[in-house]
Amino acid sequence: MGDRVVIIGGTAAGSKAAATARRRNPDLDILVLQSGAEVSYSACGMPYYLSDEEHVPRKLLVARTPDQFARDGIDVRIRHKVEGVDPKKGTVEITNLESGKTWSESFDQLLIATGADPIEPPIPVADDAPPVVTLRSFKDMDRIRQMAGEYQRVVIVGGGYIGLEMADTFHALGKQIALAELAPRLLPNFEPSVAEIVKSHLEGHGVDLHLGTGVAELISNGVRLNSGEEIQADLVLMAVGLRPSTGLAQQAGVKLGATGAITTDAGMHTNVERIYAAGDCTEVHHFVSDQPIWLPLGDVANRQGRVAGENIAGGKAAFSGVLGTAIFKVFDLAVATTGLNESQAREAGFDPATCQITTMSRARYMPTCRNLELLMVGDKKSGRLLGCQAVGEDGADKAIDTIAAGLWGELTADDMAEIDLAYAPPYSPVMSPVQVAAEVLRKKLRS
Amino acid sequence: MGDRVVIIGGTAAGSKAAATARRRNPDLDILVLQSGAEVSYSACGMPYYLSDEEHVPRKLLVARTPDQFARDGIDVRIRHKVEGVDPKKGTVEITNLESGKTWSESFDQLLIATGADPIEPPIPVADDAPPVVTLRSFKDMDRIRQMAGEYQRVVIVGGGYIGLEMADTFHALGKQIALAELAPRLLPNFEPSVAEIVKSHLEGHGVDLHLGTGVAELISNGVRLNSGEEIQADLVLMAVGLRPSTGLAQQAGVKLGATGAITTDAGMHTNVERIYAAGDCTEVHHFVSDQPIWLPLGDVANRQGRVAGENIAGGKAAFSGVLGTAIFKVFDLAVATTGLNESQAREAGFDPATCQITTMSRARYMPTCRNLELLMVGDKKSGRLLGCQAVGEDGADKAIDTIAAGLWGELTADDMAEIDLAYAPPYSPVMSPVQVAAEVLRKKLRS
């Protein structure tokens, strides 16, 4: 028998690490401990199941069941909680949440993939307040699903990705939606003009928006905002954000970074020997700003999990960092970003300029053509492309991926304007949105 | 008055050059001579007008009319043919095709943007043969449009982009289609497995395919193939390919390259002083192979036209070359390529390997998810990415643009597997098609 590998957490990073380590080294003894009832599931898919379970069946959100892991010789235990880690002895304390039984397991190598937890603001709750839900686990999802017939008026607290995606979901279910966001505008990581487009789009779909105000109290049949205003509600979705789940790591002496998440090197090693970390509980290196950021996203966790799995099995893989790329859908709009926005670029020491254009997603005479808004940021000193934000009904994902590849190659705005991209009327205008934006930006960087 | 600029050809390169030169230098005296009846039109849009003129009106295919050019102080003359160029005297001989009048105009700078002509194979034509059409000009398009009610059975000769796009168009119009291609398979610039997918897709839409045989003769009410087989037809579309239109250039002493098209430097200067060339009549530098190729595509012509226009107006712009990127639609499929395929890579001196994968365009549980086939080529020596082909109903254009940006940055397969791309279930699987392919390729390059 090879080394004993214990993995705490079996969602994105944990399950990917387990599968990767197994593939690389068939001799490893791999134990995955998951406090919830499911492993290897797509948290990002939950809003789509909730809005359209006929086409998005629950089982499809699960990439691999514990039985499937077992067939690969990976021991996955659901409903098992790790209570503590002793890095010197090389043991973890485990509670079986079903039986209550507690015991200790030893490890040669440990991966902390504990993810992130929803922030639950401490606000007063009246006895007859509407039910409050979050959306992080399958348990949360199933609870919202079970209540489907019992509510009509929803208040969403928080205007981040999850809040906005769920506005779309509740709308698809025919619910009446109010959304309260503490910040004076939606999407603080996006430029104000992007947030404004999203705001109009939400209002156009009948979402009752309350910006610059949080929820002060859950009252009888509703919520009271900080502003004093009361909104009636049958259900409250808390989506005010996440925080990295680092309790076990801290208790084991694992160092956190300035972002509050676990620091690792590119190989996913923490400062404690034999302990790795990956996924939403860790911070990552930003390729453009050269600074650590906390970016709790499923695809990042997945790539980190692969690196951790390789290295646990004796490899020498490295995680190259992120561009801060993200995308989400809200009603008909895709909202996407990669790289730095202008203020982030300034903080990172660049001399940035931004261009904003409205262009077309395909040849203007094709019925599938839609407007696409692009904000592209570059550095005046070097001409280097630094980032881009895109919002529109069509083509935002394509533009952002193309630009992300450009950022990875450290291309300039000049380069970006000249790339030979794929043109045919059903797919792109003769000058693609990316080229049009880069053409405007290159001039701006020289002026 | 500034320099006298004469531009021969007013489609993509010529009209873009005129507009760019005007913007940069308001004093130039610009004359554009176009033998056809329209300038600045989208040749690539013609199949979409023919299949759906309700949604794709004719006028939308024209980017700018002669009147619009006139308002910018650009003198555009349609139905004016240039008969000869005297580079020493700096004059062109012009015939007005309407009046028959002939005269000479002088130039300080000349741009040759004469485009490409359809190849018309010299085959015997019976007196009562069906009408034969090509599709290059608006005149061709209008002729096909006018005959819409008069034919039911079409034979398409040639299985390139235009032949396949028009198969889609004729199918949309409810016509019965046979297609003959001289080569033993479709799409010789694509890998055989891509051609095979396209072949099945065509057959699935009822196209009667005849590969490995050209048309020997146009007979009464049909065609006779080289194989001897006869096919009944009411209309024959000749789409066997294009050749660069270089007659005027050769007569003026302008040098052609090995591809048969005009050679220019990166600034679009020919070997003859004061004479520039741009668009489908020129060859271009391939960024990956470092060799000249002939790539008659609208977006390439457009970018070359911009460079020529800048330089004619005193600028110092350079055309950086192409990746050989191309895409076309045939029924539900997008078929796309960028960079080199394996045999082109070997010819260019690389030590290539190719991976082929079938992956998903979006999260597998989204109803919009489709299979996407990718063939990715890399260099074993350097690990560098060399090219990719994609075919599928969804996501091929996005994958190819992302990879094109990677090729422009000379990224390796390792880089490509690690780029931080935009993930959300409606837009991408957690590992995007590009990452999945690069992950398989990186392993193959090391083995």
Compile the SSE list and pairings.
2 copies of one chain form a homodimer.
Chain A: E1 4-8, H1 13-24, E2 29-34, H2 46-51, H3 66-71, E3 74-78, E4 80-86, E5 91-96, E6 102-106, E7 109-112, E8 116-118, E9 132-133, H4 138-146, E10 153-157, H5 161-172, E11 176-181, H6 192-204, E12 208-211, E13 215-219, E14 222-225, E15 230-232, E16 235-238, E17 242-244, H7 247-251, E18 275-277, E19 284-285, E20 292-293, H8 298-312, E21 326-330, E22 333-339, H9 342-347, E23 352-360, E24 371-379, E25 385-392, H10 396-408, H11 413-418, H12 433-446
Parallel strand pairs in A: 1-2, 1-7, 2-3, 7-18, 9-16, 10-11, 10-16, 11-12
Antiparallel strand pairs in A: 4-5, 5-6, 8-17, 13-14, 14-15, 19-20, 21-22, 22-25, 23-24, 24-25
Question: Could you describe the 3D structure shown?
Answer:
2 copies of one chain form a homodimer. With 447 residues, chain A is α/β, with parallel strands linked by helices. Chain A folds into 3 domains: 4-117 and 243-312, FAD/NAD(P)-binding domain; 120-240, FAD/NAD(P)-binding domain, CATH 3.50.50.60; 332-446, FAD/NAD(P)-binding domain, CATH 3.50.50. Chain A has 12 helices and 25 strands. Chain A has helices at residues 13-24, 46-51, 66-71, 138-146, 161-172, 192-204, 247-251, 298-312, 342-347, 396-408, 413-418, 433-446; strands at residues 4-8, 29-34, 74-78, 80-86, 91-96, 102-106, 109-112, 116-118, 132-133, 153-157, 176-181, 208-211, 215-219, 222-225, 230-232, 235-238, 242-244, 275-277, 284-285, 292-293, 326-330, 333-339, 352-360, 371-379, 385-392. In chain A, strands 3-2-1-7-18 form a 5-stranded parallel sheet. In chain A, α1 (13-24) runs parallel beside α8 (298-312). Chain A is globular and about 65 Å long. Chains A and B meet through α8, β21, β22, α10 and α11 of A and α8, β21, β22, α10 and α11 of B.
